[in-house]
């Protein structure tokens, strides 16, 4: 064991001289740790200051535009529908068609916020454009609030799907800026929790019977997991362990209640899942019923989902969200509770495999029988976005002048 020379002694001086001898390299004495870290942090902060400042300014500008966009668009949507109430009495189908078009435009505006921030979508798997005229249910994995915005974007180019779509969302969305629009459109807000489950399923059944056919709805978006991945994963894994079910990491075990209600209410028993227009002898006067289940899997790079705040403020770097579709004809979906549970569990086990493959390779695996997976980049038309945004602001200006005129007439 070597003793350390005491400061001020001849041995210490000799050691210092030896350390400065030519040909020998020793690290320079370290500055106090606190001082070094502080200097580094200050340097990094000074270098990043312009970039952080620009991000903050851009976020504030985007937020201001979003507020103005909501004020004019949502207010105009409500005013138009109030004026069109006589049409609802005379021709309900035409009324809900017009409402659906405006609803699609509103969702297109939300999609544009992410589009201009560089949050784009690439689609994989089956091409769902081939079934846009049929009735279908989308079963989607749920990671964050941005999942809804992602679907709003990637369904914009699927003809009138968005206009004729019904969403099943957590009741908390009722209290957002878009809540009043969803209530008018006929979306369903479901309250989570065991104490509410039976009542909510009964309300869902009544809601579908009252609003789905009468408003000419075609597609339903459902998140069977019943909550965000980060909130439900631990509970789901505990349940899986107790019931000898697969241990899932990237998704959670789905809940069957809402899916079973939807199938029981909307599936026409004689339906065989054939595409629309397949048999001219079918009775057009009768609804075909639900024909397809679209198993939809959303994947974010590095498993980092986008939330609604990021979508609005745009402070995250541009990123590509990947959406995988797999279409199942309704004839292949069992309706009995136990069989349906097994079928639904199997879909989410497949989602787990899809996401594992994606996080390892950056791409979804090819379909069975194919050597390569083909992706399709989803795009929005800048011209179309400009037109609907212009229509929203012009409508807002028009309604403002109308209310101002009546105000001066009355007062």
UniProtKB/TrEMBL annotation:
Membrane spanning residue stretches: 60-83, 95-116, 384-407
Region (Disordered): 1-34
Annotated GO biological process: phosphatidylinositol acyl-chain remodeling; phospholipid biosynthetic process
Limits of the Phospholipid/glycerol acyltransferase domain: 136-260
Record has Transferase as a keyword: yes
GO cellular component: endoplasmic reticulum
Key words, A-Z: Acyltransferase, Lipid biosynthesis, Lipid metabolism, Membrane, Phospholipid biosynthesis, Phospholipid metabolism, Transferase, Transmembrane, Transmembrane helix
Family affiliation: Belongs to the 1-acyl-sn-glycerol-3-phosphate acyltransferase family.
Protein name, as recorded: Lysophosphatidylglycerol acyltransferase 1
């Amino acid at each position: 064991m070597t003793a350390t020379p005491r400061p001020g002694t001849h041995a210490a001086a000799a050691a210092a001289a030896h350390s400065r001898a030519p040909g020998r390299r020793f690290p320079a004495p370290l500055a106090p740790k606190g001082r070094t870290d502080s200097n580094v942090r200050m340097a990094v902060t000074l270098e990043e200051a312009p970039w952080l400042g620009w991000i903050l300014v851009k976020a504030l500008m985007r937020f201001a535009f979003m507020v103005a966009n909501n004020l004019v668009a949502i207010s105009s949507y409500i005013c138009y529908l109030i004026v069109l109430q006589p049409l609802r009495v005379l021709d309900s189908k035409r009324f809900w068609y017009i409402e659906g078009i405006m609803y699609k435009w509103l969702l297109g505006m939300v999609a544009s916020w992410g589009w201009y921030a560089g949050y784009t979508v690439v689609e994989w798997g089956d091409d769902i454009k081939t079934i846009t005229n049929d009735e279908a249910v989308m079963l989607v994995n749920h990671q964050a609030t941005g999942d809804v915005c992602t679907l709003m974007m990637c369904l914009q180019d699927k003809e009138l799907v968005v206009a004729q779509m019904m969403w099943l969302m957590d009741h908390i969305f009722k209290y957002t800026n878009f809540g009043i629009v969803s209530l008018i459109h006929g979306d369903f807000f479901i309250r989570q929790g065991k104490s509410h489950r039976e009542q909510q399923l009964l309300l869902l059944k009544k809601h579908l019977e009252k609003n789905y056919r009468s408003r000419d709805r075609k597609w339903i978006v459902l998140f069977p997991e019943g909550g965000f991945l980060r909130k439900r994963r631990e509970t789901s894994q505990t349940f899986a362990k107790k019931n000898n079910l697969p241990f899932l990491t990237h998704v959670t075990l789905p809940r069957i209640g809402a899916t079973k209600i939807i199938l029981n209410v909307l599936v026409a028993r004689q339906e065989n899942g054939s595409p629309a227009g397949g048999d001219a002898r079918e009775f057009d006067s009768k609804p075909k019923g639900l024909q397809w289940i679209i198993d939809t899997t959303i994947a974010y790079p590095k498993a980092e989902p986008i939330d609604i705040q990021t979508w609005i403020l745009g402070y995250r770097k541009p990123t590509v969200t990947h959406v995988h579709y797999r279409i199942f004809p309704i004839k292949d979906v069992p309706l009995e509770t136990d069989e349906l549970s097994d079928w639904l569990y199997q879909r989410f086990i497949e989602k787990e495999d899809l996401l594992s493959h994606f996080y390892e390779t950056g791409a979804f695996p090819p379909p069975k029988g194919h050597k390569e997976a083909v992706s399709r980049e989803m795009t929005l038309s800048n011209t179309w976005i400009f037109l609907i945004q212009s229509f929203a602001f012009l409508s807002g200006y028009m309604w403002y002048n109308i209310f101002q005129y009546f105000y001066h007439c009355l007062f």
